[in-house]
Request: fold
Amino acid sequence: MIVGGGVHGLATAYYLARNHGLTNVAVLEQSYLGSGGSGRNTAIIRSNYLTPEGVRFYDRSVKLYEELSTDLNFNVMFSQRGHLTLAHNDASLRTMRWRAEVNALQGVDSDVIGAAEVGRLVPQLDLSDTAHHPILGGLYHPPGGIIRHDAVVWGYARAADALGVHLHQGTEVTGIDVEGDAVRGVQTSRGPISTPVVVNCTAGWATLIADMAGVRLPITTFPLQAAVTEPVRPFLKTVVVSGSLHVYVSQTARGELVFGAAVDPFPSYSMRGSLQFTESVAGHVLELMPALAPLRVLRQWAGLCDMTPDFSPVMGVTPVDGFYLDVGWGTYGFKAGPVAGETMAELVATGKTPELIAGFDLARFAEGRLVGERGAAAVGH
Amino acid sequence: MLIPCPLCGPRDALEFRFVDETVRRPEPQSASPEQWRSYLYLRANRAGAVTELWLHRSGCRQYVVVERDSLTNTVTAARLARKEAVS
Reply:
């Protein structure tokens, strides 16, 4: 039984069926497939993180994404157009050098480049030294890029369904039955289901689902807002990120510019947008690329980010037998979808925690083994 | 979102800094490492009525205990934190 019909839940179900031959699997989704974080992220894929654990994990995800269209027989439109993180001060450059060295050690294509090369990649950037936040250089990651996030959800859903997985939309989990220290079943808005295994693949509601099983989580839920402009002729190839300005910009295949930011300044389960976000993101984008001033914002939206104290996810077993976690996905959940599905499926099917996610266990918080991921999008440098 | 600061009156939430949900600190001398780390990391993260600590950073610079609905962001009460032991 998998709770959450987003990319994580659907990928877990798909790999359970494909890699382990387990098709007696149901995915429960309270709304429609991909209605949560999977359809609300800014669709950026990359693996240039800071911790070796993070880099190895996300690199496997990039590899799976590269093969995904063939694997699912569904075009997910993965465009590896390069990912550029800008440095506006010496501290950023130092962190980038650190990241580049960790990346190189793990075999990930990633390097620190100077301002002149930044200008060759993205001529629209304001490279003058009179800018409020002058651009000193950047961390360039050629395999990074953007993808059609809805297609990933649809592709996994269709492939899982074809293998015999049961997908239940409009089915809200209202309780989890635990006897002794083991899962016995779930209560849903459409009736009870008995099962020895429940995988919590939710984002936003992860704490509430874990509460039902009596498992406490180190998570606080913050909204993150994003916005999209009217479509214009393609001019921006690279995904441009500025940690100091809390903004990232990419141009979709349709020509719209997608803007994302850091999480909102206080936690909430509300997904209402705010004028403060629009003003701040527009201001920061114009600081980077003044020529975008005439562009109009078409719409903005928010998604829920389950932030953990160390900006790494929480994956694996819990004190409740049969209750598994694939949560705490903060601002990096979508890019991890395939590898999270692959590893969670292996854990559920074999009972052994894969090496790739061993460091992300819930017990690390009680035992003081945090995996401080300062390469995450919500972290200012 | 407006927060009714007990000293300054209703002010925009952007004047404040969200600190944390209110959690009771265990006795440092007697707490086990597990209890201390639970206090550091585990959060109720409730959907609905929450009690939180905020700092009126751009106003009176006082810590304020705020009661809020985390589903709607409606603030129902705000009190000076120094008048009560919250953490």
About this structure: Chain A has two domains: 2-75+148-217+309-367, 83-144+220-307. The longest strand of chain A covers residues 297-307.
